[in-house]
Design brief:
Elements: H1 6-33, H2 38-57, H3 62-86, H4 91-110, H5 116-125, H6 133-152, H7 159-192, H8 198-223, H9 227-251, E1 261-262, E2 265-270, E3 273-277
Antiparallel strand pairs: 1-2, 2-3
Length: 279
C-alpha cells in the first residue's frame, strides 16, 4: 500500500486538478468552435519545441528548452489565428496537417538522440508522478493568469487571445502529463457534458475529470502501469457513462433542442459569458 501514499500521489493529483481547472473551460470553447484537434496539434508542436531545445541546447539550460517550447507553440498559434480568419472552412484540416508535420519532425530530431524512444514515450504519456513543487507553483501561476483571461474576456470571440493563451497552457501541460492526457483532459469531459444544463456543464465536466485522474492514479499505483495511460483509460469510460446518464436525465427534457437554443434565438455559453447570436 506504500504506492498509494499521498507523498507519491498527492503532487500528481494537485497537478491533475490544476490541469482540469484550465482544460475543462478551454475544452468547452474548442468543442463549440469545432476545432477538436487544435489541442493535440499545439501539444505536438510544443513537444517538438522541447525536443528541438533538448537536442540543440539541452545541456546548456532548461530555460532555453522552455523558451523553444513556448516559441514553437506561440508561432503555431499565430499561424492558426491567421488560417482561422482566412480559411475557417478548412481549419480542422490545417490543424491535422500541422499535427502530422510536427510529429514527423519530432521523430526525425529524436533519431539523433540516444534516448529518443524514452523521450518520445515521456512526451506522449507524461511524467505526472514526478512533478515537483516548483513545477506546481509555475503551472499554477500560468494557469491562474489564463483563467483570469478566460473569466474577464470572451476567448471564444477573440481569436488572438484564445490561441495565444491556449498555446501557453498546452506548452506547460504537455511537459507534465504528455500529449495524450492533454487531449483527453480538454475534450473528453467537454464532450461528455454537451447535453448537460449550461449552468452545471463545467462543474460536471470538472468532476468527471477528477474521477478520471483519481481512478487512474490509483490504478497506476496498484497495477504498476504507466500513469498517463491509466488516467486516459479510466477517464474515457467514466465520461462515456456520464454522457449516457446526462442524456437520459436532461436530453428528453429539451425535446431534442440543444441547450442554449431558446425562444427563437441561439445562445453560446462560454464559462461566465453568455452571448446572443442572431439567427
Amino acid at each position: 500500500m506504500d504506492a498509494l501514499s499521498l507523498d507519491i500521489l498527492g503532487p500528481a493529483l494537485v497537478a491533475g486538478l490544476l490541469i482540469l481547472a484550465t482544460h475543462v473551460p478551454l475544452g468547452a470553447i474548442v468543442l463549440n468552435r469545432g476545432i477538436i484537434f487544435i489541442d493535440i496539434a499545439l501539444a505536438q508542436v510544443a513537444a517538438l519545441g522541447v525536443v528541438f531545445g533538448t537536442v540543440m541546447w539541452g545541456a546548456v539550460s532548461g530555460l532555453v528548452v522552455q523558451a523553444c517550447a513556448v516559441a514553437a507553440a506561440l508561432s503555431c498559434s499565430v499561424v492558426l489565428t491567421w488560417t482561422d480568419k482566412r480559411f475557417p472552412e478548412i481549419q480542422e484540416a490545417i490543424i491535422g496537417v500541422l499535427y502530422v508535420f510536427a510529429a514527423a519532425l519530432q521523430i526525425i530530431l529524436l533519431a539523433y538522440s540516444a534516448n529518443g524512444a524514452e523521450h518520445l514515450k515521456a512526451l506522449l504519456v507524461g511524467q505526472i508522478l514526478w512533478v515537483t513543487p516548483l513545477q506546481l507553483l509555475v503551472i499554477g501561476l500560468i494557469y491562474a493568469a489564463v483563467l483570469a483571461l478566460w473569466y474577464f474576456r470572451d476567448l471564444a470571440r477573440e481569436r488572438h487571445l484564445f490561441y495565444g493563451g491556449f498555446a501557453v497552457v498546452i506548452t506547460a501541460s504537455v511537459q507534465i502529463v504528455g500529449v495524450l492526457l492533454v487531449f483527453a483532459s480538454l475534450i473528453v469531459p467537454a464532450l461528455a457534458t454537451r447535453h448537460a444544463p449550461a449552468r452545471w456543464r463545467l462543474t460536471i465536466a470538472f468532476n468527471i475529470g477528477v474521477f478520471g485522474y483519481v481512478g487512474g492514479l490509483v490504478a497506476s499505483a496498484i497495477l504498476d502501469i504507466p500513469t498517463g495511460a491509466a488516467i486516459v483509460c479510466v477517464l474515457v469510460p467514466a465520461a462515456a457513462l456520464a454522457a449516457v446518464l446526462i442524456e437520459r436525465r436532461f436530453g428528453g427534457a429539451r425535446d431534442g433542442v440543444p441547450d442554449g437554443v431558446q425562444d427563437g434565438g441561439a445562445y453560446r455559453h462560454d464559462g461566465p459569458h453568455v452571448h446572443q447570436r442572431a439567427e
